[in-house]
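queue> pop job 88
queue> type: inverse folding (structure -> sequence)
queue> payload:
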């Protein structure tokens, strides 16, 4: 109601889908699935339902950014005015015009789909297992489960095979979570890995790990470390384009934590371009992220 009152951009699941939830024919035609196939129970969506919700949110963001950019939001005078207003009223900085030009689909695997692209490669395979873990033991729903590869002990390793060129994904037409042909417009790639931390993997249990390229592709190794501010860690590094890239996540001894466990939950290949110019808004955001210890590659583009 607040967004409607002030005309703020919004994505309403109710407005978008409520009329389809009890019309199986329309739902099948427009979403490719019926209500029963999208819902885990009367209140919670399953994985397919969340993908449909995500598509709606992504469409809303794209439409909003397109309208903002079309109205000259990237012009220096407009940026300065918007930033001054944000400072005066304590609002967030304007949406980055660079981000608006970097819009394309990523290739990602998480949850059960991540299991197929990774395999344990350490000395003791019994100390690297695929496991489902509760982040809320009292929650009865499948959405309250965390899935990933759990490793125990320094030296344990996980290997992930992927196509960083995204050539195969560009030819995919099955509607799955793959990069689209728009990735061809972006000549560079980030490799990102998600892992458990925070309350999901307390500092007393967690070790650190190193993400590195093993074969086919090239990348600068990065450290995956514990941080207190979120339950899902994410680290990324720029990676070269290669149709058969093999990367590893290896547990390393870390004196700053008290544990010897590490859990990897997903991987993504993110297309991007250096053609877009960095505005001062981007520079401020990057500096703030670095000061907070952010592990994303905030030096882009």
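queue> result:
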């Amino acid at each position: 109601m607040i967004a409607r009152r002030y005309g703020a951009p919004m994505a309403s699941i109710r407005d978008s889908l409520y009329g389809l939830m009890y019309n199986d024919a329309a739902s099948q035609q427009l979403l490719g699935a019926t209500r029963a196939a999208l819902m885990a129970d009367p209140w919670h969506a399953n994985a397919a339902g969340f993908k449909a919700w995500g598509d709606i949110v992504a469409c809303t963001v794209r439409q909003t950014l397109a309208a903002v950019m079309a109205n000259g939001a990237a012009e220096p005078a407009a940026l300065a005015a918007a930033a001054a207003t944000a400072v005066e009223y304590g609002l967030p900085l304007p949406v980055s015009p660079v981000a608006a030009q970097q819009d394309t689909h990523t290739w990602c695997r998480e949850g059960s789909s991540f299991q197929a692209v990774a395999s344990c490669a350490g000395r003791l395979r019994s100390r690297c297992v695929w496991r489902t873990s509760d982040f809320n033991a009292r929650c009865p729903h499948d959405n309250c489960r965390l899935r990933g590869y759990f490793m125990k002990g320094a030296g344990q390793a996980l290997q992930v095979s992927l196509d960083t060129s995204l050539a195969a994904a560009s030819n995919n037409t099955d509607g799955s979570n793959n990069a689209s042909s728009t990735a061809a417009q972006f000549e560079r790639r980030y490799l990102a890995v998600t892992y458990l931390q925070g309350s999901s993997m307390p500092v007393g249990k967690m070790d650190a790990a190193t993400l590195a390229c093993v074969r086919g592709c090239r990348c600068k190794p990065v450290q995956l470390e514990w941080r207190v501010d979120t339950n899902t860690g994410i680290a990324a590094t720029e990676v070269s384009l290669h149709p058969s890239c093999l990367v590893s996540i290896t547990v390393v001894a870390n004196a700053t934590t008290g544990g010897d466990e590490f859990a990897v939950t997903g991987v993504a290949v993110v297309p991007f371009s250096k053609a877009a110019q960095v505005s001062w808004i981007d520079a401020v955001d990057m500096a703030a992220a670095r000061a907070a210890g952010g592990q994303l590659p905030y030096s882009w583009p």
